[in-house]
Amino acid sequence: MDNKKMCPSAPLKKGYSVFGKFIDGKLEYYDEIITIDSEMLDTVKRENVRTTMPCVSKGCGNWSGDKCTVPDQMNFFLTPIEDESQFENCPLRKSCRWFFQDGIKACGICPLIETKLFGT
Ligand code: SF4
Question: Which domain of life does the protein's organism represent (predicted)?
Fold first, then answer.
């Protein structure tokens, strides 16, 4: 298992982290990644945030061969954003699984994906 890379499309759950929030339909990145503790869990549940967790690679159903297939799946459905200024401030870039494997191409579809609520 590769714990060094982070999944940028994790469920919303205590102990995971948030790295951005949708405001008026646009993903605004935080300055830093923030761990979700008990106190902030209720707050972020009411917001439309993006959540990250350590990538579990082969332990995930979206993994195939040597990569995460979510960016390829999303590229099939979504039209990538071409304006790189919309995602250049992402605080996850240094550790992001998608950026590591697909580079800036993954960032073009990333802000179009909304996190769904799963468990606590
Ligand atoms: S794909 Fe790009 S924009 Fe999305 S979390 Fe990774 S580095 Fe950030």
Answer: Bacteria
